[in-house]
Amino acid sequence: MFYKDYSHWIREQFPFRVQKISVDAAFSCPNRDGRLSLGGCTFCDNKTFNPSYCDRGKSITQQLEEGKAFFAKKYPEMKYLAYFQAYSNTYAPLEELKRKYEEALAVDNVVGLVIGTRPDCVSDEALDYLQQLNQRTFLIVEYGIESANDNTLRRINRGHTFDCSRQAIIKAHQRGIITCGHIILGLPGEDEEEMLHQASTISQLPLDILKLHQLQIIKGTPLAKEYEAHPFHVFSAEEYVNLVIRYVSQLRNDLVLERFVSQSPPNMVIAPKWGLKNHEFTDLLNKRIRELGYDHR
Ligand code: SF4
């Protein structure tokens, strides 16, 4: 196998099928609420995070029940992971975190949590609690790294450094927590050489899972304004397939790869407009890997 695929890996973790259900647990983000900045990361529009059943006006339980009802029609035996996805899901006092995570775990057939957050938003106290939680349920902590280059992180107004990501990942890993990292390929100021250089840096982190996304320029974001004023190169689907293959070939091969692309609603995207569904992209990628004879590394 050229890469270790998440869907196979997750099937090995449970004796039944599991599906993630996104919940919007009404957290905020220090890069939006003024603690770090009000503007957020330049690429960010949180409206692109959530499927339609996510609504912070509804309780966590209700969101999960609605998500379950959606999937249970097709797969009645399915069990679920509550995916705390929108904003920074450890950015609150510990008691609030406990209440929200416990509410999700109390829902029937929810067998674990996936908690997405910023690397500068997880206190040692919260990590100690997550370590305990990890003893009694399935848990993944997912960190937005986005880039390993501090100049890029400044340019996209990320509000933390790469070393902050490194330290957060090490601390979670030392506590035995499965950690996932999220990277964006194609950020302004990064050429292919720079991205490939970063791949080996990312590969040295004690991560279990990696998610790659192509940069998407979303209407109304600061990045959209930057792109309009000073257009920069955005990958075609073919260029991105080739980049991903070169990027993945720099990674250690026990790293589980969960995704390669993201799909924001087409009416919100300025560029790139590939018109491909996620699975169609993965098919293209796998076809190219076979053509190159890389399917057995
Ligand atoms: S991408 Fe995440 S960290 Fe950045 S502004 Fe949006 S919610 Fe906050």
Which helices and strands appear, and what pairs or packs with what?
Layout: E1 4-5, H1 6-13, E2 18-23, H2 60-72, E3 79-84, H3 94-105, E4 110-117, H4 124-136, E5 138-146, H5 150-155, H6 162-174, E6 178-185, H7 192-203, E7 209-214, E8 217-218, H8 222-229, H9 237-249, E9 256-259, E10 269-271, H10 278-291
Parallel strand pairs: 1-9, 2-3, 3-4, 4-5, 5-6, 6-7, 7-9
Antiparallel strand pairs: 8-10
Helix pairs in contact: 7-9, 9-10
The structure holds iron/sulfur cluster.
**Alpha carbon gyration radius:** 19 Å
* Percentage of residues in helical conformation: 25-40%
CATH homologous superfamily title = Aldolase class I
Query: Main sheet: which strands, in order across?
Result: 1-9-7-6-5-4-3-2
Number of helices: 10
Shape: globular
Counting DSSP E segments of at least 2 residues, the number of strands comes to 10
Please give the CATH class. Answer: Alpha Beta
What is the name of the CATH architecture? Answer: Alpha-Beta Barrel
